[in-house]
């Protein structure tokens, strides 16, 4: 039986000795330890439309589209894929916890044997860990993932974002934003501290560097307030004061939320933002109440303190939050994408049983296609799922790899 242990240990010992540019070669050299002749890393590009090979050791590969290839199916379904007409090759999702990085191509005479799936998963998990640990020391990974030049405004925002997807046994949070190479005003953040998941979704006014500079201040002020132990209301007030102090002519809409993962109690402040949607049993049941506070930076116009809306979630409930770039996207005929079309799309995705990260990816692709690939505003969506551990784990299969 194939054992990935030797390959994993070899990678862990040797990866710290080289730079990011050497990762492809290191992984290729580990192939023999799992009975493979070749192993190739493919990384998802920024807008998650294609898989880009990270090449080394004289290997030659082309980019692969996510929509139409087996490699893409492995990425979207998070399952090992193999083709009957190509029995020496399998595709394994490349995951760090639950964040999708790309796929691993394993070429082996034993690829048709499902006994290889477990060792391949184990190797892919360790490759992902090495990749994330080493990529910060060079630019090769960033360069490979970029299909277009990235504007400075987008560089600022992407440098501040947390991983797009995070999950535990009882929580899943995943987000996506476009246009990924020119985004400026939208930003989000989240943190799990004990039993409380905190999250913030922000849409700053303006475009370009001014918007991304304001976004940087907003998310930094949010983190500072959260880490200082401020409650939800005082967090909103603190961000509001920072925006007014540093950018007196600007503002940001926001959703600030806290979820108690023991009880399912969700507390939200809506600061002039589009309302989030509550989804239950595979369908959207209602939109959560609209603004409970003025946009951040305009709080001085009212003597009232921000109001907190509370919602008692049911096990398995999901919350979809979004910026107006989603619903305001317009077709060639001038028709808005709108809330109704958004609800219909999400309902169909839930009924199809898509993993949450894939639902978000397809949603943004649908919005882009609706507006002929030319967004007039940033389009960001954030998806939260609460799944208490005493329930079946079926909803979480997309973040749990099979045991070797």
TrEMBL record:
Q: Gene3D superfamilies this protein is in?
A: PPM-type phosphatase domain
The answer to whether keyword Hydrolase applies is yes
According to the lineage, what is the superkingdom?
Answer: Bacteria
- Asked if the Swiss-Prot or TrEMBL record annotates the protein with the keyword Hydrolase, the reply is yes
List each copy of the PPM-type phosphatase domain by range: 136-386
The family database entries (Pfam families) matched by this protein are listed as: SpoIIE
| Family matches, as PROSITE patterns | PPM_2
UniProt-listed InterPro entries: Bact_Sigma-Reg, PPM-type-like_dom_sf, PPM-type_phosphatase-like_dom
* Xref: SMART domains: PP2C_SIG
Q: Which GO terms label this protein's molecular function in UniProt?
A: phosphatase activity
Alphabetized, the UniProt keywords read:
Hydrolase
Q: Which PANTHER family match?
A: STAGE II SPORULATION PROTEIN E, STAGE II SPORULATION PROTEIN E-RELATED
Q: What is this protein called?
A: Stage II sporulation protein E
**The organism of origin for this protein:** Micromonospora lupini str. Lupac 08
């Amino acid at each position: 039986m194939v054992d990935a242990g030797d390959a994993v240990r070899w990678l862990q010992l040797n990866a710290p000795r080289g730079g990011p540019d050497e990762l492809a070669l290191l992984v290729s050299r580990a192939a023999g330890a799992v009975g493979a002749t070749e192993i190739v890393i493919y990384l998802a590009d920024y807008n998650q439309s294609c898989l880009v090979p990270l090449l080394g050791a004289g290997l030659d590969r082309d980019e692969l589209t996510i929509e139409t290839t087996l490699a893409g199916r492995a990425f979207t379904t998070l399952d090992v894929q193999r083709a009957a007409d190509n029995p020496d090759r399998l595709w394994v999702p490349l995951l760090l916890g639950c964040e999708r990085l790309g796929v691993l191509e394993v070429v082996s005479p034993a690829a048709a044997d499902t006994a290889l799936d477990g060792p391949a998963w184990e190797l892919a998990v360790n490759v992902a860990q090495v990749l994330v640990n080493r990529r910060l020391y060079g630019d090769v990974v960033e360069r490979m993932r970029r299909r277009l030049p990235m504007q400075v405004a987008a560089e600022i925002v992407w440098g501040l974002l947390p991983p797009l997807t995070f999950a535990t046994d009882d929580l899943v949070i995943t987000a996506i934003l476009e246009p990924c190479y020119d985004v400026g005003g939208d930003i989000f953040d989240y943190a799990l501290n004990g039993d409380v998941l905190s999250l913030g979704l922000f849409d700053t006014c303006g475009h370009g560097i001014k918007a991304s500079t304001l976004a940087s201040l907003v998310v930094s002020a949010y983190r500072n307030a959260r880490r200082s132990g401020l409650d939800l209301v005082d967090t909103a007030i603190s961000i509001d004061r920072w925006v007014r102090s540093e950018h007196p002519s600007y503002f940001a809409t926001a959703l600030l939320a806290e979820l108690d993962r023991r009880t399912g109690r969700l507390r939200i402040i809506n600061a002039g933002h589009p309302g989030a949607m509550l989804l239950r049993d595979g369908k959207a049941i209602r939109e959560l109440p609209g603004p409970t506070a003025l946009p951040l930076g305009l709080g001085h116009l009212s003597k009232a303190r921000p109001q907190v809306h509370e919602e008692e979630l049911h096990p398995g409930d999901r919350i979809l939050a979004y910026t107006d770039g989603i619903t305001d996207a317009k077709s060639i005929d001038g028709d808005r994408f709108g809330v109704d079309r958004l609800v219909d799309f999400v309902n169909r995705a839930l009924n199809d049983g898509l993993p949450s990260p894939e639902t978000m990816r397809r949603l943004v692709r649908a919005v882009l296609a609706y507006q002929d690939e030319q967004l007039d505003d940033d389009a960001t969506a954030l998806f939260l799922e609460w799944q208490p551990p005493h329930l079946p784990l079926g909803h979480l299969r997309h973040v749990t790899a099979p045991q070797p």
